[in-house]
Structure formats: structure tokens, C-alpha cells
Amino acid sequence: MSIVSSLQKCTAAGLSALFNQSFTEKDFQVNQTKPEFEGDYTVVMFSLVKSLKLSHNAIGNQLGDHLTKNYPQFFSKYNIIKGFLNLTVSDAYWVDLLNKNHNDTCYGKKAMNGKKVMVEYSSPNTNKPLHLGHLRNNFLGWSVAEILKASGYEVIKSCIVNDRGIHICKSMIAWQKFANGATPESTGTKGDHFVGEYYVKFNDAYKKEVDELVAAGKTKEEAEKESPIMKATQQMLLDWENGKPEVIDLWKKMNSWVYAGFDVTYKRIGSDFNIVYYESNTYLLGKGIVQQGLDKKVFYQKEDSSIWIDLTADGLDEKIVQRKDGTSVYITQDIGLALQKYEQYKIDQSIYVIGNEQNYHMKVLQLICQKLGMPNADNIFHLSYGMVELTTGKMKSREGTVVDADDLVDEMVATSKQHTEELGKVKDFTETELKELYDTIGLGAMKFYLLRVDPKKTMVFNPQESIDFHGFTGPFVQYTYARIKSILRKVDSSLLMVDSKDVPNQDVSSMNYDPSTMSLLKLEKDLIIAAEQYPSMIEQACTEHNPSVIANYVFHLAKTFNSFYTEHSIANAETSAKKQLRVQLASITANIIKSGMGLLGIAVPERM
Fold first, then answer.
1. Contact 340, 282 (CB under 8 A)
2. In terms of domains, do 79 and 225 share one?
3. Residue 330 belongs to some domain of the structure
4. Most buried by CB count within 10 Å: which residue of 199, 354, 374, 391?
5. Residue 40 belongs to domain spanning
6. Is residue 592 helix, strand or coil?
């Protein structure tokens, strides 16, 4: 239990005992004490004045006396300032917490709770490679999945591949017209990049045809409909839906090129899935549900035979769920897949990591599932996130202005190499070690920068800023970790007792000091307090589906350690007991940084 939870329970029990009323943790606030005041945690008493009909001082003195007298293992003293009861947690509590947890690499993580969650992310189209927007999506989805695991959930990572539709046929038509039989192998091009080039070629050809038709006297709307390349694409889509063998063969061939390319990118960025769904297999799933909805009078049929749902009473609008020709629309497919996910895994929650441009679509999806009485409909959750742009502005894939994920990763690794070489601390690294280090720093910088922002916010990605070793960045946190590991490698092994690889057969529970008599300096205490908050940070990140909570926390922890180490030596501590304590402080900090960065999908180097 965290110190805040303990304080809340003790305060509620104390108030109930003192004033013969029933109190719960919701009847008052507990915050960290502001830096300008003495104390660690503050009970805000304003909400208690009215019910108790006593002054702030009267309540505070009685409660402060009660807590310090009855819970000496927690609280050593208190003070009252204008309605705030500031409590100082005893040094013995902090030292004991450090003693018990300094070597626990699973510190902060919970036991399995028996609940299942599916996290769906990535959702690529097979007409182009992954781009910067996909990177934010993948990093968010993967990190949320890991945070859920750390919170005790069984997690199924899933991906839906958009492998059918008019956009896929555009690349296929362009390849037929312009490739002259070229392949990724014959051109030495990564498969997803290769297919993406033909998507751009389609758009160029389409635009040219439209311009020519407009010049010949057509309106723009007429020209767009009569463009030969667009007509050919629409026919190809019909041929695909009718199973025309040569179209299906081409579709499979070009998709296989894209999948091979995706696999390389996913492996490089550390993204993985337990199951991959394909739209070509799921687009018919919802058709049976449409008939059920008609039978239940959830849906209604118009005169042209199209089928709709009226959501105006729910503040939305009317939504088509099946076209007049009997074909399904995206929402119908999503309803069918939502049911399949539940039936396949019996999940307690289904999380969709999808950009905020789909907020309305996701509201409609959940509402229809609820009206149909589908199991788990109430537990559909849309993790909506803002778009990510570059400092150069927005990107458009059809115009070829999107920054491909692979190119961006290459740029980050190259920038990492440049910055690391400028620091000049890696002269003893082998070529293999250097390559691994540059990848670790480059990818870490990109992931941290994209995850440090609340998912709901639109953001601008600045590659140069993301890799600053002194800023609010992944490399700063990575460097702090490597610095701590260097310190720990230099201390006496009898004091280290942290890593079983370094110190075999050591009893890590044996200490050279008595926790009850150890007094803490301010920066030592600040670091333990920061470490104690890690389990609460995981819990908050899980509840909010927000990895930025972890990113901000590990950065704060790293800064706190650096402040501590600037002022206080570990190797030359004043006493052997202090040296032991500071080794433990370094150890727990390193373990938490490695664990927290791991939840973000970021590796931390032992040396850099």
C-alpha cells in the first residue's frame, strides 16, 4: 500500500475516532506538501470545517496529535498552516521501504487479477508503408498494453489490417500500368515502400487525367467520375469482390510485398501482436448482425432497401449499416469484429487505439453494440489520440509528402550517432556495441518524445530536440541510468548486493545499518519519496490509459537522482552506513528507470 493510501486510511480512521462520525477517504484531500512548507504530505481540512463546526486549527491539532501518537511508524511530526495539516513521514518509514524494495526488479507491478483486455493498434493500409502517425499509434498501443500487464491484466495485442477497398486497388492499377513487371526484389526496394510508390503514381496520373478532362470542357466533378484510371480502379474493386482469379492473385502478390516490409519495420521499432485480423476476412462479419438488428427493430429499412439506424435521440444522426445493394459499410464490419473478439477471447475490455478523427465513428460503434445488446458493449473504450505533425507541417500520403517510419528511424539513429560521438565517451566500444547503442538511443529518443505528451493532445515532433541529452528526453533518462550503473560497478561488491550476476550467493536482505536509527538528508529523502510513487504512477497510467504519466515520472526520477548525486557522494559517503544506504538508493532508482522505460518500449544501455 502506498504512503498516500496509508495516510488516507489513517486519517479517515482518526477523524472517525476523534469526532464520533463516519469518515471516508473521499471526505478530504491528501496532497504532497508544497516545497515552501515543512512536511511531506498535506491533509486539506477545508471540507471538514462545516461538518465538524470547528476551526482549522482545532481539527488540525487534534488530528495531528492523533496520527503522530497512534501511527509513529508513519508520522514523526506535524504543523498547521491556514487550513492545511502538513505531516512529516518518519525517516524510519522511508529507510525501511528502501531496505525492502531496493533490489526488487518487479517493484510497482501487480499480481494477475484474472481479467482480460484486448488492445488494438497500428491498423495499417496495405497500399503504403507505415508513417509517423503509425509510429505514435504503435508506441501508444504497445505501451498501454505493457502498462496493463504491469497492473495485473492478461493482455491480447491485436491489429486489424486494412487490406481491401478502393485505396488498395489504386496501387494495384498503377502497378499494372506503370511497373513493367518490376518487383521489390528487381528494384532493391522494401516491399511496403515499393507498393506505396505506386499509390503516389496513381494519384499523379489521376490528377493529370482530371486536369485534361476539365481543359476539354468537363466540370471537375464530371472529370473525377470519368477519369479512365479511376473507372479502371472501381472495376477492379468489383472484380475483387466477385473473386476474379487474376485480380485476387495480383492482390495477394502485392499484399505479400507489403507484409514483408511491415514485418521488418515492426521488428525494428519493437511492435508485436498476439493476433492480426484482416479486413478481407472480416468485412462480411456484420451482415448477419444487420438482420438481427432488423428483427429487434434496432435498425430500419428504407424504400431503396438500404438499412439504417436512427441515433438522433442519442444526440447523433442517422447512420447507414448496409447499402441498398446489400454490401456492408465500415461500421457494420466493426460491429462484426467487435463480437468476434469477445467470442474468441471473452475479454473484459476492448481498447481501440485510433486517432481523434474517428471519435464520432467510435461513439456510433459503441452505441449500436449497446442497442443490439452485444456482450461487453459497455466496455468498448476508444483511446483517442491527437495527430502528430513534423515541424515542416502536415503530411499527405497520396501526395508523397508523408515521412515514412523507416526513414524517420534512420534519421533518428544517425542523429543519435552524431550526438554520441560529439560527447566522446564511447571510444572503447566495438563497432557492434556502437551500432546497438545508436539504435537504442535513436529509437528511445523517438519513443519517449512521442509518448511524453498526453495522447489526447495534437503534437509536433522535432527530431533534433528529441535527442538532446540535457532536456526532457529519452536520452537524458538513458544517460542517467547508464551513469548509475557505472557508479554501482565501482562500489564494493559487499555493499552492492543488487545484481545477482555481479554478486552471486549474497544475502540481499542483510544490511549494515539499523533502519530505525538512520536519519536522512533532504535529497536522500526526496529520492526515496520519488521512488515510492512508482506503483501509484503505474496505477494512474493504467486507469488513464496514458503512458505520458510514466514518461513524466521517470524523467522526474532521473532529475531527482542527478540532483542528489551532484551534492552527495556514494563511493566517499561519510559513513559505511550512509554508503550502504546510497548504494540502495542508486539501485532502486536504476531498477525503476529500467522498468518504467521498459513500459514505454525503451531500452536503457548499461554504458553510454
1. yes
2. no
3. no
4. 199
5. 3-89
6. helix
* Domain termination residue (choose one: 271, 286, 317): 271
Residue at 196 is within a domain: yes
Q: Which residues have a Cβ under 8 Å from the Cβ of 430 and sit 6 or more positions away?
A: none
Number of domains in the chain: 3
Task: For residues 414 and 508, state if they share a domain.
Answer: yes
Environment class of residue 110 by beta-carbon count within 10 Å: exposed (0-12), middle (13-18) or buried (19+)?
middle
Task: Give residue-wise pLDDT tens across range 443-476.
Answer: 999 999 999 999 999 999 998 899 988 899 999 9
Nearest to 234 by CA among 294, 288, 185, 169: 169
Give residue-wise pLDDT tens across range 78-100: 999 999 999 999 999 999 999 99
Q: Cα 15 from chain centroid?
A: 40
Of 222, 241, 271, the residue at which a domain comes to its end is: 271
Burial label for 20, CB within 10 Å (0-12, 13-18, 19+), is exposed
| Residue 411 pLDDT | 92
| Residues 107-139 pLDDT 10s | 999 999 999 999 999 999 999 999 999 999 999
Given a contact cutoff of 8 angstroms between Cβ atoms, the answer to whether 495 and 583 are in contact is: yes
CA-based Rg of the chain, rounded to a whole angstrom?
A: 30
User: What's the pLDDT tens digit per position in 267-276?
Assistant: 999 999 999 9
In a shared domain, residues 53 and 177: no
Query: Is residue 338 assigned to a domain?
Result: no
Residue 239 lies in a domain: yes
Cα(191)–Cα(178) distance, rounded to whole angstroms? 16
